[in-house]
Amino acid sequence: MSTAEQNRAAEGGRTPTGVARGLTQGATGTRGGIGESTLRPDGVLKVTGEFAYSSDLWHEDMLWGHTLRSTVAHARIVSIDTAEALATPGVYAVLTYDDLPTEVRHYGLEIRDTPVLAHGKVRHHGEPVALVAADHPETARRAAAKIRVVYEELPVVTDEASATAPGAVLVHEDRDDHHSGHVPHPNIVHRQPIVRGDADAAARRADVVVRGEYVFGMQDQAFLGPESGLAVPAEDGGVDLYVATQWLHSDLRQIAPVLGLPEKKVRMTLSGVGGAFGGREDLSMQIHGCLLALRTGKPVKIVYNRFESFFGHVHRHPAKLTYEHGATREGKLTHVRCRIVLDGGAYASSSPAVVGNAASLGVGPYVVDDVDIEALALYTNNPPCGAMRGFGAVQACFAYEAQMDKVAAELGMDPVEFRQRNAMEQGAVMPTGQVVDSPAPVAELLRRVKAMPLPPERQWETTEGADVRALPGGLSNTTHGEGVVRGIGYAVGIKNVGFSEGFDDYSTARVRIEAINGEAVATVHTAMAEVGQGGVTVHAQIARSELGVTQVTINPADTQVGSAGSTSASRQTYMTGGAVKNTCEAVREKVLAIGRRKFGTYHPAWATAELLLEDGHVVTDGGEKLAPIAEVLEDEAVDLELEFRHRPTQPFDLRTGQGNGHVQYSFAAHRAVVEVDTELGLVKVVELACAQDVGKALNPLSVAGQIQGGSTQGLGVAVMEEIVVDPVTAKVRNPSFTDYLIPTILDTPSMPLDILELADEHAPYGLRGIGEAPTLSSTPAVLAAIRQATGLELNRTPVRPEHLTGS
Amino acid sequence: MEFLRPATWQEAVAAKAEHPSAVPIAGGTDVMVEINFDHRRPEHLLDLGRIPELSEFDTDSGSGTVRLGASVPYSRIMEHLRTQAPGLALASHTVASPQIRNRGGVGGNLGTASPAGDAHPALLAGGAEVEAVSVRGTRLIPIDDFYVGVKRNALAPDELIRAVRLKTATGPQQFSKVGTRNAMVIAVCAFGIALHPEVRQVRTGIGSAAPTPIRARAAEEFLAAALEEAGLWESRAALPPAVARQFATLVSGAANPIDDVRGTASYRRHALGVMARRTLDWTWREYRGAERTESCA
Amino acid sequence: MRVTFTVNGRQASADDVWEGESLLYVLRERLGLPGSKNACEQGECGSCTVRLDGVPVCSCLVAAGQAQGREVTTVEGLAGPEGELSTVQQAFVDAGAVQCGFCTPGLLVAADELLERNPEPSDGDIREALSGNLCRCTGYEKILDAVRLAAARTEGAV
Q: Taking chain B, what is the end-to-end CA distance rounded to the nearest angstrom?
């Protein structure tokens, strides 16, 4: 609906909000193909307020769903009394575990350990216990407040010591998942060692040995669009679900069995997604909304508020990391030993894969022949943790980069030069034994980021006094320059791209080309979740480049087409971009076949030349136009749906960690310039420069946006972002935007970029997944800069003022 | 829930008398958060947004006072009262975000009486009086008597805050607050200072470092005595560093903070000392008419 | 209760409004204007920013009844009568300031008001004016670019 239509609707009554429509975009002025900074096809809808996010959906006669969540972290549920809630006028349904329709009552990304509604026990603060559907959100809230749940509290396990202590309470009894056989304790979800060479022997060759213990706090994705969706019961007994997610088909696989429906009766359509960053890879309201819709026979909308959102999705694993690095006097690393303990919280989510990443990327982008790594994730009664941008590699990078600075200092060597001496390059061997078989310009990225001009000193000084907006503390007026010291820090990181460890990672694209009004136009249909990253922009660019068309329609993502895999792991441009390219190539061949059939006899070039589709024509590689595509097609349409896979990977050996586990690696380097009010412990990041190799920038404007956005999330966890969990009660202490702080525009500095494009010959267009690498190195670069300014060791992130003042 | 919409101040006062549990709402920046998050379900909401005089301020140069309507938004205070109430204007600039500053006013801060309210240290340092009105009449509550407990104030159930009265500043005032973000942040702790040269007094205010907003009286008395003794009010000479240090120590000592999710007690004490020293430095330099030290944002 | 006010130049009213509802809820759920967003509902993100009698406010913190008889402008009211994008809207699209777009409506309303008040803002002015609007995707660089671009285009047009 247009704005005007909406206003009319507002006048004359209400009409359902449009939930799904294609995005059609022609090119303006340029070809709009790959390599151009084509603008988003959903941009106009997003700036006019017309873009329908999952929380904007509306349906005639719709009810509001509400979730009652546990107020304690670990307890036996003695009883649940819903009678009074059910009797509340306006309430249509109240559901508990006992109301679930089938014997499938758990879900999970990898291990189905998460109850749809709590069964006899709650394992973390905020676990869903009951559902209410009512005619107004306030009615639903009031009714939920009338549900009486009697808890008998159980002891909590909150860290490695308590989780693995003799007699420790087991978070999950009777585990039978595929990791349960090899873990040393039932409260350990998964453990991955990686052993290569002989670290003990290498340690004897080391001239310096540096050890450190590091702590990484619990970060939240803090996407702005809250978890939400609309479930509409269908006449065939199925359900139509409109939802914001990262992976429709993974949701579907988990939802349908719980509802007792075949997958084809659960029709999912992606609604507008207000950011994701990993936090929508697990289910939130999906099953709950469907259950309420099927029970009441009415459409049900569920929208979490910000408080609930902090309980509605997994967070980044907090971690404790212990490292030992050795080096020779000449500045060559001899060995690395490390142990990474990740807190997975009460349910597994993607903890096993996070462990694999933390272990395999645990030494960073450096050549080290002798390594001894152990990574594991715990089950505790803390909030469940899973995917967030950087996925296990973030925590490791924070620690190994701090170590690199420490070793350099011990050697009296420049920290950038020390990194460069140990930097991996193409052909290097990872601790897993995998050979890095595409460009790995680690030393070059460091060189470039260091070569960027530094921001001027004392930028806060103006002729009218100190501009507090440019000083630590900002508008709070804490300093006019007193105590302010500048520091500069560097870091570089390595992130895998795509799903690893033998996962059958594929994407699907359906592409159609046809002639409409004498013009060849293309339609691209995938199930890719557009979460803001710009996949829809890139798909249209690929279709234009491959099919020579101008107008491309991107159909809504839904489950009527094959899986696109997850919008995570920096994989969508590679995978669904690759699928669109792959299908376009097949479509092109069909178009050419039709052309040859129709026109082959009129021009010899049809038979001999390498033919392309460009500017709406079939052209020879010499540029000769043979025929308009529209004339080739006439009334015929070419319509294909094909799957695309990246190179297969292997699982890591459970004992040695050896194996070609990853598809591709991505590298970024940062230089942070900070000013620290050393007396008050307040930090202003003055500049955060980044150099990154992107293989091929399909859309340079979007590439810059990804790098700057990712860098800012790394900055956030360096200086402010942390979910604080009470160590005694395992309850979350700051589930709000008042106390979980993310950077404002006054916390975020200028972020100059230097983008390198070294093609990976194995990837579509040579591209490299880019979304996550900048989130890795940003945090340690900021920490390094703060260390330089303060001279403090700072083994914990985020840094809080009291850590900098020693008070 | 009932929504009361008095059109005049008299109607508002009458409504509060009739429904003493009614929750007044003006900018809504506290009350609506509590309603949105299910923390509060009052029987009556008393909307004060339609009463023009609450959003007005008068400066009376004759009596040297500012009468600031309870609902004058912070954005107008920081813009229009920089001369008459510089401490409060600076504090107003640190409140939340531009959108919140456009709605919130000191009436809300006083009504909520949270120790973290940004206006309190400035009101304490400025020696404000709260004009409380009920059908029984009007009384002026000295700010020193206003905060009586954690999120509790001296208002009677039938009283509404009409305005705050402040003496027009006769000397420099400063305000500083620590938060862990450079904008839109709740105070970890805050400090306000006002020099009152006409009566040779110094007043202070501390926020978020005790169950209520408080003054650092020992620090005030020490500083006033030190200034008096050395004749500094007249000479406007530089402040001896030892005096500034002792002042900072006494401010620190006046606090009674706790550890919470926003910061530790010991950090709060430490930060108050730093802010006390710096803001004293800024105010004293301004008093001396020396180099310009104010901020320009 | 019934609430009537002007939104984007037109009279609008809603019946059966619960007294605890916010202006944001009424706009989104009762008036078919979901452009203003619901990211935090506690005044800490700016995604619900609208202009109330011309002044940018968080509509989540305005009680619906407080809007009675007032003038409200939402993101849906920024474009021209024929749907042509305003300068600041076009600049956000052109500069790449939109990713997921959830913060965009609030930022547009705030940026539009800034440029009306201060047609040539410094970077510091832009940062201060937008410091109540959180964005989680962009890192704000392209948002700064967009506001600079809108300011330059406005000046160029004068």
A: 42
